[in-house]
Amino acid sequence: MVRLIPRDEKFFELFIEDGENLLEAARKLEAMVVSYDRLDERVAEIQALEKRGDEIDDELAARLERSFITPFDRDEIHELTVHLDDIVDGIQASAETFVIYGIDKPTDEARQLVGILSGQAVQLLEALTKLERGKDLGTHLATVHDLEHQADGLSRAAIGRLFRDGLDPLDVIKMRDLYRELEETIDAAEDAAEVIERILAKS
Fold first, then answer.
1. pTM (2 decimals)?
2. How far apart are CA 47 and CA 40, in angstroms?
3. Alpha carbon distance 75, 72 (integer Å)
4. pLDDT tens across 129-147, in order?
5. Cβ contact 116:150 at 8 Å
């Protein structure tokens, strides 16, 4: 059927751009916790990516306001935009926490959580790239959920170990806050996957 009023397909391009920016930020955080050097410089790079993400999100919001016909539900466009923004915000907050709290070095659990987040970013970008066709997304979205479940167990175990290992109470608070920030960011990635699943269910 020919559409008399065409949909604005630019949304798909912007979501892919958002996903690429998100993945770059996640990889910057991963590189930071692996090498753990030049922290201020690395945090600044992530902050620049967060600002770029905000610009993409602003363009998505402006396009949503201008468009007469959208490729899928307006509320879900808005919700997906918000969750993708939450992930990049969480990546920035996690990076800044290392510096603000003066954490000497990342724990193995922190590195694993960052690796999980980076893995989710890969899968979300793959899903966003395939969103316009609406096919072959299931495996990517399922992997985002599986990674979130892994993170839940890892985070609980990591926080438990903080209290068992007789660390300085201040160090316990620092690491607990970092784990929670990372876990919330990983949860935001799962939230984004769930929005994509709802979009697919209606298509």
1. 0.93
2. 10
3. 9
4. 999 998 999 999 999 999 9
5. yes
